[in-house]
# Entry
Amino acid sequence: MTRGPVTIRDARPSDAVALQAIWQDFTADDVRGHDADLSCDETERAVMRLETDPSERLLVAVIDGEPVGVAHLRRAPVSPIHDEDAVHVGYLHVLSGFRRRGVGKQLLEAAADWADEKDSKHIVASVAAAARDANRFLARLGLGQVAIVRASTVAGLRCKLSGTAAPKVVRTNVIAARRLMRRTRVTS
# Structure
């Protein structure tokens, strides 16, 4: 199946359903999951908010009229003590079926073009530590690791700071359970 050329453009409120599908694909491998699913109206409002903010952009990669990738760009200082700005790229994601076709590269090229337009000399990209392919992709493009970003809910952090124990989540170690079942069968 041949696919048309990739077009990079700013997201539109009419992209809300496609953006939600991309977000679901983006978070599918996240072991923590996400509590809140956004409605189409909330996604449309978020896109409209980003359209009016001169320091942010939400780019979509489109093939044959279908959004297949996304990147959130934010212009901000490199650090709190530096005067120089950087373009921070977050939520860079290409749908699984459209990878290895230059879509991510074109999204980052658009980010670099915007950085040049805004006289920003640096690009900072954030991806999940567990996103092995995305990390390799960025490394191949010359982006080095400069930080580890960790996240928590405010309630979870407050719980840890106060020293009170949060309720433990019981997770089954499937592999250990299978090994135990195999051992039990072999010895019987």
